[in-house]
Write a structure and sequence with these properties.
Blueprint: E1 5-10, H1 13-25, E2 33-38, H2 41-44, H3 49-52, H4 60-67, E3 73-77, E4 89-93, E5 102-106, E6 120-123, H5 126-135, E7 140-143, H6 148-156, E8 168-172, H7 173-178, E9 187-189, E10 203-208, H8 213-220, H9 225-241, E11 249-256, E12 261-269, E13 276-284, H10 291-301, H11 304-307
Parallel strand pairs: 1-2, 1-3, 6-7, 6-8
Antiparallel strand pairs: 3-10, 4-10, 5-8, 5-9, 11-12, 12-13
Keywords: Porphyrin biosynthesis, Transferase
Domain Porphobilinogen deaminase N-terminal: 5-212
Subunit structure: Monomer.
């Protein structure tokens, strides 16, 4: 490539860390890329994601910069992308996926089951709130926002004001790993009984549909077929259920290359954690394309729309 690849990214520490790691994986010569920091509405506001209109608030400013030619590629946390296609934009690469699990960070090195009755646990996710209430209805679940360091500080920083102090927080394991903070994790919450958000731990790299062919080819080399398949299946469940950021939905797709199979497990929770619906399905890889739709239909048939705010319930 004659010109540096201009890569758009949110300006948060986590976004910069994951974008830089991906950019380095391109193997471009020195000066072969430049990062362009872009601030989104979601970064500027302290309101909840549901109030702002969902995780798409982190995406629109990046896509605007892509479409108007300020950048050549943009890097997202795949879970932040709306499921509807964006005209003129393609997901050119889904790099190898990081850990899809959630992680507990608790004072005193405690695990979830070891937290005392009434312990205050922070999260900004309706899914995690419902899962916490389902597993430990005796806990006080506290709604929080802020970057990773801010959230961790409410547990680990002894100078935090008493009224803001928490006993634990639940965060994405991938984000902690990308920031080099794995050591603070006191428990990884296993996907078998704590499914995470659709496409959690995966990145998506978007480019214009008419992107420079040489740049597009370089970006496409970082695509991982297993990561793309798993993320696409999980997001298909999200799309069919019309489950926005306020819906407590967890989905896990596992691609087993050795067996040549793909399995999907999904759970929808009552917002108060009082009930859940869980379904599973698997298929040989060549027939796996329909698993997302199958899971979504099975969830609806099992009564998921009566438990949680799903747009599909209105269909």
């Amino acid at each position: 490539m004659t010109a540096p690849l201009r890569i758009g990214t949110r300006a948060s520490a986590l976004a910069l860390a994951q974008t830089t790691a991906w950019a380095e994986s391109l193997g471009l010569p020195e000066g072969g890329y430049e990062l362009v920091r872009i601030t989104s509405e979601g970064d500027r506001s302290s309101a909840s994601l549901a109030t702002l209109g969902g995780t798409g608030v982190f995406v629109s400013a990046l896509r605007d910069a892509l479409l108007d030619g300020r950048v050549d590629a943009i890097v997202h946390s795949f879970k932040d992308l709306p499921t509807a296609p964006a005209p003129g934009i393609d997901v050119v690469a889904v790099p190898p996926r990081e850990d899809a699990r959630d992680a507990l960070v608790a004072a005193g090195g405690l695990r979830l089951e070891g937290l005392p009755e009434g312990a205050a646990v922070g999260t900004g996710s309706p899914r995690r709130r419902a899962q916490l209430r389902r597993r430990r209805p005796d806990l006080e679940v506290v709604d929080i926002r802020g970057n990773v360091d801010t959230r961790l500080g409410r547990v680990l920083d002894p100078t935090v004001e008493e009224h803001r102090r928490l006993d634990a927080v639940v965060l994405a394991a991938a984000g902690l790993a990308r920031l080099g903070r794995e050591a603070v994790v006191t428990e990884h919450l296993e996907l078998s009984d704590w499914p995470s958000a659709p496409a959690q731990g995966a990145l998506a790299v978007e480019m214009r549909s008419d992107a420079d062919a040489e740049q597009r080819a370089a970006v496409a080399l970082t695509d991982d077929a297993d990561a793309r398949l798993a993320a696409d299946l999980e997001r298909e469940v999200l799309r069919i259920l019309e489950a926005g950021c306020a819906a407590p939905l967890g989905v896990t797709a596992v691609v087993d290359d050795g067996a040549g199979t793909v399995s999907v497990r999904a759970s929808v929770y009552a917002l108060d954690g009082s009930d859940e619906v869980t379904v599973t399905a698997s298929a040989d890889r060549p027939e796996a394309g329909g698993l997302g739709e199958r899971i979504a239909r099975d969830l609806l048939a099992a009564g998921a729309a009566e438990l949680a705010p799903l747009g599909a319930a209105r269909g």
